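Batch job 17 of 40 flagged for manual review because the log was empty.
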Amino acid sequence: VTAAYVVPNGIEPGDWQRPEFETARISAENADAHPLLAYTGRVEWEKGVQTLVSAMPALRRAHPGIRLLVAGRGTYLDDVQRQAAHHGLDSSIKFLGWVSEEDLRAIVAAADLAVAPSLYEPFGLVALEAAAIGTPLVVSRSGGLAEFAADDQRALTFTPGDAASLEQAVNAALADPRATHERAERAREAVLAD
């Protein structure tokens, strides 16, 4: 009889602490944003940033001060920027390109929600990073992201590629700050424990 062991993907939680000065700077730069969403990672088709951009007009109607920070670059960046411009989202989405590790942590820490909209995702380290820093998550119900969300106990989920489903998940997270905070705490505890 052979034993089977599962070794989960992981991050170094000590690297994902809230950088207070940089977080305050990001918050100040986005002081007019309520709420502030963050997407971090490669900007590729399979990462689903286009789904998040598609959801932004409806989210802006529900939350006129909403802003999305997109930190990352990739082969799909030009397409997503054109999509945002087509929807008239220039004031609601900031494309930051590549950012330093320190700024990346600050962006995640300053956000009200981190969104991982992958169309498919074997695991998704961005969810662990946001959870480690304590930022609430909204993630697609895809692969490892869905597994980490633990039936919406650690993060709210939505159907991959479905902008209306993503919008509903973001609205639900924003509508109940207490439940959202509790999910973020469970997610952080899971990262630290596992």
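Reviewer: the log was empty due to a logging misconfiguration, but the result itself is present. The longest strand covers residues 36-40. Unflagging and moving on to job 18.
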